[in-house]
Amino acid sequence: MSNSRHDETWLVNGVLHDGDKTPGAVLLRAALTPLAWLHRMGLEVYLAPFHLGLRKRYRLPVPVVSVGNLSSGGTGKTPATALIAGHLRDAGKRVVILSRGHGGTAEREREPVVVSDGSGSHLPPDRAGDEPALLAGLLPEVPIIVCRDRRKSGRLAVERFAPDVILLDDGLQYWQLHRDLDIVLLDARRPFDNGCVLPRGLLREPPSHLSRAGLVILTRADRVPDDHTLRQNIAEVQKRTAPNVPVLTAIHAPVGWIRFDAPGTVLPLDAIPRQSGVLFSGIADGNAFAETVSALGVDVRSVRSYGDHHHYTAENLSELQEASRNGMPLLTTEKDAVKIAAFGVDALPTLYALRIVLQVSDETLLKERLRQLF
């Protein structure tokens, strides 16, 4: 594990989750607490004009659905967006996805950038951002637009693609745009983390803000230690939602391995030799990915964790080539493989990407909630 990733793990587990009782960690927690209060107060001041009707949200002429979370990353927004877009598409609806495009150069531009026009081709991840590029590969017939200003990208979507519905990837905190449905993802293991907003906790906004959710999905439900704890966590979530808001559970289900040198080839889960594997990732929750791979029976010989939205370099690839010099498989996420593809299919010939989909507990209820938009 890299030093930066080790420091991040210590900050979350040791400091924010109170695992480290040393004086230094205690002092750091004390210093972060007033900053969290300022964060929360600043957020409430910013939102007050919206609540009082002094500032209006921009409304697009078609239904808008956001997929987001209260915490900072790691709940599975990208597979959830792919799942929901797929359901809408299969119902015969024209869908456009709007994304901010974290990590791509398009994110810095003032005007919207079309990552994919739905014809099958799309911009590379260094331009589009890793998540929009991955979604474009998973949903080649769905247009995807990147822009920090979702009002601008929404107008472009309506003018150019005439959608029946617009989907916001990671759009819960985009206050300026009206949504018809907010789908909120929470980690079933710690739905509200430690209950504190950044920087004392990992929450972008306080648990009370869950009241605006129209549907809640508790992801990684299979990682909760027992059914009793899961039921308790579901009950805690239901206390903070509006009446009759559905709370579903979901798991991140691996479905196959993608060969890096043959992107269209999906191999069965038992295709990777169980005796060895070198794992690496640059995602928000690399530990969860490592647990998923280990659960498949792969003996993970080493783990290399990079930061979320990591930009891979030639030096990184050389390190990975050295780690797999004996022909040992390199194992990563689809999001990471999308970025490495820019180096060519020969860059890491022993690379396999694990395809993971979100499986929800009640697909019928999810589809019905989406159907109510029209």
Number of strands: 13
| Rough outline | globular
Which CATH top level class of the largest domain fits? Alpha Beta
At the third CATH level, what is the topology name of the largest domain? Answer: Rossmann fold
Low-confidence residue ranges? none
Distance between the termini: 48 Å
| The CATH homology group name of the largest domain | P-loop containing nucleotide triphosphate hydrolases
- Provide the domain count: 3
* Radius of gyration, in angstroms, nearest whole number: 21 Å
CATH architecture of the largest domain: 3-Layer(aba) Sandwich
User: What fraction strand?
Assistant: 15-25%
The pLDDT mean sits at: 92
Helix content: 25-40%
Order of helix and strand elements from N to C terminus: HHEHEEHHEHEEEHEEEHEHEHEH
Largest pleated sheet: 13 strands, mixed
Structural class: alpha/beta
Give the secondary structure arrangement, pairings included.
Blueprint: H1 3-16, H2 23-51, E1 64-69, H3 77-90, E2 95-99, E3 113-116, H4 125-128, H5 130-138, E4 144-146, H6 150-161, E5 165-169, E6 181-187, E7 215-219, H7 227-240, E8 247-259, E9 266-267, E10 278-281, H8 286-295, E11 302-305, H9 314-323, E12 330-333, H10 334-340, E13 351-360, H11 363-371
Parallel strand pairs: 1-5, 1-6, 2-4, 2-5, 6-7, 7-8, 10-11, 10-12, 12-13
Antiparallel strand pairs: 3-4, 8-9, 8-13
Helix pairs in contact: 3-5, 5-10
Q: Would you give an account of this structure?
A:
The protein is α/β, with parallel strands linked by helices and 374 residues long. It has three domains: 3-51; 64-251 and 359-371, P-loop containing nucleotide triphosphate hydrolases (Rossmann fold), CATH 3.40.50; 253-356. It is built from eleven helices and 13 strands. It has helices at residues 3-16, 23-51, 77-90, 125-128, 130-138, 150-161, 227-240, 286-295, 314-323, 334-340, 363-371, and strands at 64-69, 95-99, 113-116, 144-146, 165-169, 181-187, 215-219, 247-259, 266-267, 278-281, 302-305, 330-333, 351-360. Strands 1, 2, 3, 4, 5, 6, 7, 8, 9, 10, 11, 12 and 13 form a 13-stranded mixed sheet that branches. α8 links the parallel β10 (278-281) and β11 (302-305). The longest helix has 29 residues, at 23-51. The radius of gyration is 21 Å and the shape is globular. The model has no long low-confidence stretch (mean pLDDT 92).
